[in-house]
Structure to design on (259 residues):
């Protein structure tokens, strides 16, 4: 099985689905990574680990480190620049043409002969315009690419009692909720790779938990997937990825049973 994980920025792959992607690699899937930007507009650390003009190169190295930690097979970047955060923490997309982005995505899918596409969800997790753009491009691509043998799944699908409900895509009900505790070492290693983002990770999680936390404490071990295309029939999807997940023993049955 060949999987393409397509995300907007370095660290999205780890924080949103790192355990799942590491699990698929452990189960024998070829997991390839495509990142739309090099994260040039993000934080550089506190204190900064590089000059602003060096951030894209450093975050590219961090993503390569994370992909290796997660057992990834390859990493590619699209040629887009991540805009800087605006006033009042306003976030921006990296371009405004989902049709063009869909064409670029389709080219990579075809080059890899991918069986599964995994992307951001419909609301961009916390509403990030770049995440929503990736979803929109994937939706366009799926119209002609998806089939019973070629699957599109999205991350951070909605389910009860999530440890980070702010990140859930509420319109994407979870088909699979996975306990990735056995992959915590891989996910933690990937998180540690993203050194420029550690201050951000710790700040957000400390605010959520109401106490100071360390970088390893930001790692969560429940992750969820929604099959976006082809649409799942009533109940749980019956497809090659579903079979692999069930055989892994990592499906949290009490939630999956209500998928």
């Amino acid at each position: 099985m060949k999987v393409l994980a397509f995300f907007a920025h370095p660290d999205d792959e780890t924080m949103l689905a790192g355990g799942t992607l590491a699990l698929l690699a452990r189960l024998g899937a070829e997991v390839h990574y495509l990142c739309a930007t090099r994260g040039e507009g993000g934080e550089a650390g506190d204190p900064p680990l590089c000059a602003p003009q060096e951030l894209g190169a450093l975050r590219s190295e961090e993503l390569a480190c994370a992909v290796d930690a997660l057992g990834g097979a390859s990493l590619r970047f699209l040629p887009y620049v991540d805009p800087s955060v605006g006033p009042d923490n306003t976030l921006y997309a990296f371009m405004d043409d989902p049709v063009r982005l869909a064409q670029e995505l389709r080219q990579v899918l075809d080059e890899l002969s991918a069986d599964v596409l995994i992307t951001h969800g419909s609301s961009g997790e916390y509403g990030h315009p770049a995440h929503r753009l990736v979803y929109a491009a994937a939706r366009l691509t799926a119209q002609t690419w998806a089939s019973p043998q070629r699957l599109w799944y999205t991350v951070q699908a909605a389910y009860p009692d999530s440890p980070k409900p702010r990140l859930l895509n509420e319109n994407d009900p979870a088909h699979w909720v996975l306990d990735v505790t056995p992959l915590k070492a891989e996910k933690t290693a990937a998180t540690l790779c993203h050194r420029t983002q550690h201050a951000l990770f710790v700040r957000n999680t400390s605010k959520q938990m109401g106490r100071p936390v360390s970088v390893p404490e930001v790692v969560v071990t429940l992750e969820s997937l929604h099959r976006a295309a082809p649409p799942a029939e009533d109940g749980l999807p019956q497809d090659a990825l579903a079979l692999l997940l069930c055989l892994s023993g990592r499906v949290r049955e009490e939630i999956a049973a209500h998928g």
Summary: The mean pLDDT is 96. Residues 2-256 form a domain with the Rossmann fold fold (CATH 3.40.50.10320).
